[in-house]
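User: Structure please.
Assistant: Input sequence and predicted structure:
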Amino acid sequence: MTRCSPRTVLHRAAGSLAAAGLLAAASLAGAAAPAQAVDTPVFTFGGPAETALHPYPESGKPKSSRVGITLDNPSEDEENGGFDGDFTLTFDLSGVAGVADVKIDGEASPDCEITGTKAVCEDWGIRPGSQSAADFVVTAADGSENGDTGTITVTGRADGATFTPFTTRLTVGGPDLVMERLPFRTELTPGEKQQAPITFANRGTRDADGVLLTLRYSRGLDIPQRYSNCEYSVDDPDLPDFGWTTALCSVEGAFEAGATYTLATPLTLEATERAYYDTFLYGIHENSAAQRTALRAGAPSERGSGGVLKAVPAKKGAAARSTDLTPGDNQQEADFRTENTADFVAYGDDVAGPEGSTVKADIGFRNEGPAWIGHIRSGEDVATVDFTVPQGASVTSKPERCRAVTADGKYREDQKSPAPRYFCNTSMTVRDGAGLDLPFELRVDKAMVGASGAVTVRGTFLKNPKLPFDPEPANNTAYLILNGEGDGSDSGGATEGGDGGSGEPSTPPTSAPDPEESPSGTSGSSSSGGSSAGTAGGSGGGLASTGSVALIASGTAAAALAAGLVLFTAARRRAARHS
C-alpha cells in the first residue's frame, strides 16, 4: 500500500504544466475534432468497520487503538490512471463525542489537522491502487462507559472527481480473545502424531457471540479430522507454493468475559511423510461474516463431513457482538523440524545442430521426495542449479531467474552477452514431485562432437554446495550434451567436484524424470513460484568450468554437420516441463 504524496511545490508545478499542456493540445485539436466527454473518476475509502476501545481506566493513562483510513483509486492504468489535482478529505468526529478522543498521527498524516469536531486532510495526486489517507490514534473518552459507541464519517472533495463516503464505528469495551500457546514437541519423525488441545480465553469486558477458530498448517503437516462446521481450503492464492491448508471453524456459543475454553475433543496434528520444516498457526477471533471473508483471502473451500467441533464450557444465551480489544494476541504459531530427506535429481538434455544454428535445451532438477523443502521463516532460496555451457556454444536466451557468472563462479557485471556459466536459484520452497525446469537456447558457434556442460543442483553457496537434506548427492549432476554420439545413455560420471563429495560416479538422466515413475507419486513442473534474487555469489569450489570435448577431425563429418545431415534424437521431453 502506498501513501498519498505530500503536497509540494514540485507536485503543483508538475500539475500546472500538465494542465497547460492539455489546454494547449485541446485548443489545437478543437477545430479538427469535437470535444469528447471524460468519465469522472470515483474514489472509495477503506478501513475497519469497527474498532474496540479499552475502557477508560480508573487510574493511569488509557490504552490507545489505531484507526487507519485508506483511499482507493480503482484504475488499473499505472501510467495514465492517476488523478492529478488537489483534494480535501473531511472526517466528521461529532458522532464519537463523549465516546472517544481522537488524535492524528502527525508523522503518518502530515497534511491533516483537527479543528473542533472535524479533521481535515489536504493533499495532491491519487495514484492507482490503495494508499493511506489518514491514521488516527483513538482512546476511550473520560466518562465513557462500557458499550458506548459512535461513528466517524469520511467524505472527500476535488474538482473533477467523486468520493464515496465511508463510516467507521468506535465502541468502548468488547471481547478480548486470547489464544494460549501449546507445548508441542517440535522435533518429529514422519508419521508422528500429537494432540493439540486448543485453549483460549476471553479477557475482555464483554461476551463473544460465537468464535472463529483458524488453523493453518504447511504442506508437511496434517490434521486428519474434517469437521462439519469447518471449511477447508488448500493453497493460499497469495502464497501458492507453500501448500498451506487452512481450516476456518465456526464454533457456536456465548463465550463469557473472564472465562477460558478448550476444545471438547483435542485435535490431532500429524507430521506426514512429506514433512521437513513446517509451521502450524492457530488463532481465535469472534465469528462474523467480515472476519470469515478476510481470513478466506479469496481461496475456494469445501466443508468437512465429520462431526461438529465444539468448545467447552460453552454457556447458552445471547451476547452483544463487538470487536477484539487486543487483536495481536489472537494467534499462536509453532515451527516443527521433521527428520526426513528429499532427493534432488538433476537432469540434462541431448541436443544437436549444425554450426551457426540455434538449439533449444531443457535442463533442471526434480525433487523425488519424500519431503518437501520450504524455508518459510527465513525466506532463503532452497537450492541453485549451476549450469556450465558446453564448449563451442553460447547462450542466446535464458530463464529470467538465471544470472550469468564467470567460468569460476564469480560475479559478472554483464548480464546480456553470453556467459560460460549460469546460476539459477529456486524460490524458498520446492515441493515433493516438483522442481525447477529451465529452458535455454544456445547457438552452435563451433561444431564439436560430444561437447558437454554440467548441470548441478546444489546449495546456494559455492563454498558449501551440499544439500543437507539430500541422501544421494551422486545424482545431483547431469549433463547437457551438444552434438553427442549415441543417445547419451553412457554419458554418466560427474565432473570433478560434481559428485557432492560422495566420490562415487553418477549416472544422472539427460531428460526430466517421468512423474509417473517418481517415488513421490506426484507430478509438478514448476519449482516453487516466482524467481528470487540470486544469493549464490562467491568464489571457490564448485564444478570444473567445462566438460569433455572432441573436435571434429574429419572434413566429411564437418561438412555433414554444416549441411544438417547428421541428426540426433533428443531425449524424451515431458510436457510438464513446458506447463
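Residues 342-578 form a domain with the Immunoglobulin-like fold (CATH 2.60.40.690).
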